[in-house]
Amino acid sequence: MKKYLAVLLSISMLFAMVFSVSAEESKKTVNETAIMSVKARVVNDAVKDVLIKNGASINDDSVIEVLKIDNSEDTAVCVVNYDGEEIVQDVFLSYTEDEEGNMVVDNSLAEAIARSTDHNMSGSHPPLSWDGSYIVHATATAAKYIDTATDPYGWMPFYKPYKCSFYYVNYENVTVNSIEVRYITSGAKYSYPGYQYMGSSYDHIVVASKTNPVAGTTYVGYNYFPENFVLSCTGTEDMVLTFINRVNGVTDSYTVKLINKY
Amino acid sequence: MRKIWSVIFILLFLFMTGCRTQTEVKDKRTVVKEEFMVNSFKWGSSWEKIKSEPQMKEYNIIRDDGNRFVVEINNFEYLEQKGKLILLFSNSESSFPASGLIQAYFAYDDDIEKTLIEKSEEVYGERKDFFLDKKGIENPLNPPAWYCEETLEKSLNEKEKEEYLKKYEGKGYDETRIDALLRGPLVIITVDEEKNVIRFQGNDAAVVENLRK
Questions:
Q1: Do A260 and B142 touch (CB under 8 A)?
Q2: Which of residues 9-48 of B touch A (CB under 8 A)?
Q3: Which of residues 177-206 of B touch A (CB under 8 A)?
Q4: B3 three-state secondary structure
Q5: How far apart, in whole angstroms, are the C-alpha atoms of residue B118 and residue B125?
Q6: Residue in A143, A145, A144, A122 with CA at minimum distance from that of residue A222
Q7: How many Å lie between the alpha carbon of B119 and the closest alpha carbon of chain A?
Q8: Which residues from chain A sit within 8 angstroms of residue B72, using beta carbons?
């Protein structure tokens, strides 16, 4: 049974935060640099309801951020409101009880925020018509942003790619020595949250890989995107999946364009 | 003597006329068939060239940021159905890898979707979930789409291909990635039935048009 212990900390300036959870007598340092930052208006209501019930004040101009804790994979959620020159940040840290009864950080809220604005694209290799002995299915995930002020329908979306995952199916009992999938994005840089063209391009690569992978198991790689800009990917070269599969001791490398990237 | 000079002048005149005609014919060529263009607009065309067309009466500029230029045209007719046309231009002369018209969207009301898809199938056939590349190998398309037969690798001659590949020098693209860029159809048309939008991706057609300017 999950228990949520929300710790609400309101601050007026942006500092590194240190707080304690009295039940656990532990200290956590929340990194001030967000690994994901989205306008509240593009986050789904279910996620916002959880935050509001725990005391957050959210309007369409609020920004919801995911922050890393210490150097771990644990996360906290921060709701940022701008009131003139004042910046108010409410930080939420969720806990849940693990199987041994210990209180551990619950990252499900951060994951739900990412999912609410995620854009998933998929590619597979090799096609069954080529080989038929195995196939790797990969998913590339980017957080999608819309400049709702000027483009409410999202004809020109922006992206922060951050995740890549794959699994494979083994049809003829081949030996899959290793699989590496690279989710490569090239795009024009736009500032975030202002969506101003920055006059240059940027490449971002997320890698998921595994030696001796197990068929049917999903392997995931993350490379979180920088905080203060997004990519416009309306060219042709911009999102691809590169597969590097080593099967029966032979390496095959192939790249698939992600056509349904919108 | 006078007759000889007359013949020479007539021959010269015919030669000059023939050259101009050939140039005009060359300018009218397009890299894809008409059905893979939007309102017969050449991919890679500038907004300045397109906006004087008759259907471009009511338009709004959604974005103009020095890199992308997006304009929406109300009451546009596509396959005899009314909707909104959105044209996306890459509007810097140094845009990578192509400038001019690169994409278009046709946004429609839900009640005409069935008719639109039926009419599209009359023009393009069934949507396919793969296209055949130069080697005859099936390349998956996800989601299924209509696409033109022309690809970069089929359309570009050796000199054009060389010029195209120069754009990627020093960018760290490996061979398989360049291969993927060359392999795809010049125009891909998809239907987003959730958002009621038909999407025309003509980026690669714009690349070819740019190379031939």
A1: yes
A2: none
A3: 177, 179-181, 183-184, 188, 190, 192, 199, 201, 203-204
A4: helix
A5: 9
A6: A143
A7: 22
A8: 155
Going by their DSSP bridges, the two strands A197-211 and A134-145 should be labelled as unpaired
pLDDT greater than 70 at residue B132: yes
Strand blocks (E) in A93-175: 95-97, 103-105, 118-125, 134-145, 158-170
Confidence of residue B29 (pLDDT cuts 50, 70, 90): low
Q: Which of B142, B177, B203 minimises the CB distance to A235?
A: B203
Residue B169, classed as helix, strand or coil, is: coil
Q: What is the mean pLDDT of residues B72-88?
A: 92
Task: Calculate Rg over the CA atoms of chain B.
Answer: 21
Furthest-apart CA atoms within chain A: distance in Å: 64
Question: Could you report the predicted ipTM of this complex, rounded to two decimals?
Answer: 0.80
Q: Give contacts of A260 with chain B, Cβ < 8 Å.
A: 142-143, 190
**Phi–psi pair at A211, nearest 5 degrees:** -90, 140
- Would the pLDDT of B26 be above 60? no
Note whether B63 contacts A197, CB cutoff 8 Å: no
Residue ranges for chain A with pLDDT beneath 70: 1-26, 33, 35, 42, 44, 114-117, 148, 152, 235-237, 260-262
Per residue, what are the HEC states of B182-209? Answer: HHCECCEEEEECCCCEEEEECHHHHHHH
Report pLDDT for B160. Answer: 92
